[in-house]
## 1
Amino acid sequence: MLDVANELGMSLPVSLDEKRKFFLLTTPVKTLGAALTLFQQAQRLLYNESVLERLAFETVQEAAKENTKLLELRYAPTFIEVDHPNLTWDHIHQSFLKGIKKAQSQYQIGVGLIIIVQRTLSLKNAESIVDFAINNKKTIVGIDLADDENGFNAKPFESIFQRAKTAGLRVTVHAGEVPGKDSITNIEDSINLLGAERIGHGIQAIHSPNTLKLLRDKKIPLEVCPSSNYLTQIVSKLEQHPLRRLYNEGILLTISTDDPGIFNYTLTDELNATQNVLGFSENELKSFQKIGFEHSFISKEIKQNFQHYFEDL
């Protein structure tokens, strides 16, 4: 980030500590919306294909160095293009693919790309994103509906996401992250209407027996990011995270990082927090890893190359 900021001539704080605060979310904020605004600092840096290629390469490189074998990455082309209209969606996608391919030539790791539809933008925009994903489905494993959940229900996207599923794309949806009745509705609509096979976050399901039953019956895993939920103050203390209660309810769970580049932690950090703060055993952590492998959208052909790592857990 600092390299690119210097290239752009951005005015930054003098001390390294203040620079970190400028770009990284390392202490809790009052709302999820406040956290999302911080992403705009990083957004300004994504200004050309070289930067995007480097971003993809280093992301895969860092994951591989901590022994990740399967890595799903997701991005919203609309998020990148808003400040950089010179970058077409194809430019963005090809740059990421180039960086990933370069990393895979050096590290043994399987990578899949998921395209994000921003729920805060228009349905017409969502249709265009899904068209793009379908046209590039050889290099895209799935689609996601993300962005601020407050006031943006999943239901209007039903036909758009069903079209993506029909075309062979897998579906995950950010839902049930923030407290409130709408979160519960979003989880259920995401599954019943959009065809979600996984739910991003989904922790508010703990407040609804019907939603918990739906998740169990359909074997829908939650992509849980405990440290993210603390930093965005979905939970006021990490110790109060409902992960254990969800586990006791028989919900399928995976541990994810949400956004390690902005939150400044790795999957190893997240697993350590899950064990040391939330009290999960090593065997329970291994079960989360196995669920992640089994429910990954990455193709069976690629997964076969890494299956032995997960069988040995």
## 2
Amino acid sequence: MTHAAASLACLGIVLAVASPAASAPILQVRPTGEIPGVLVSRQLLSDLHLAIGDSVSLSRDPSGANARPFRIQGVYEPTPDPMKLTVRRLEARLHLSDLLALTADRTDPMAGESVDQLNVALADPTGAPRFATDLAARAPGLVVVPAKGGSGAASTFEVLERFHLAIALVTVLGSTAFLLALMVMRADERREAAGILRLIGLSRRRILSEVLFEGLFIAAAGAVFGVLFAAVVQGVVNHFFQWRYDTALVFVRVTLPIALRCVAISVPLGVLAGLVASWSILRRDITALLQR
């Protein structure tokens, strides 16, 4: 729909939940008539077995008092929000005029002419602190809170991002140590081959160069395999958790910058581990390499 709509999620608007004490459900199907239109979320439409064209009653009172009829004119998918991952998105969107008529305090003549909150978008976001100071000085008692970078959801996600970074660093360091141990074991198994190469006249630098190219090939192949595996598995992970939580939220996304970053980290670490393990063997004397 192309009309302006306001979300009623978590605003105290009661949607079709019949209570045992109530004589009639708050949200009920009525014959289609000339009544205002409303959009409902996909979850609400599915849970209450509604259909486009059905008439429903909405009330701001949990008891269902002063309900107003509306006709379902469309369905929408709620904007994915990680903060509402476990919340059933039983929501509706109304025309602003209908929303005001439904939620306004009838005892307050100015209820439909006043607002409690405004969102302001600045052309230059860097001037937000100065704008907040000027506005607070011009309108004493007005509270100015930044939508981003302040307390609340934004700071929560910043903490989560740092936590994920710490986990990533620990994982990389641990896997590097494990890889180094495997490379040392692999190089020790090739000790005699390295001794024979030294006997036929190959220098340590020549052998290390061959090890470098071999490690580069193996590390690159492993990095490409890991990226391709993640790209294939991400669809399975997303579908499972989207089904589990009934949301359109994307849980895993392998992008080109992420893939390049993984390759840029894994390939040098793999090559370095191979060189360190090989050098620990090649620095020995030829007799030490050939003895059993």
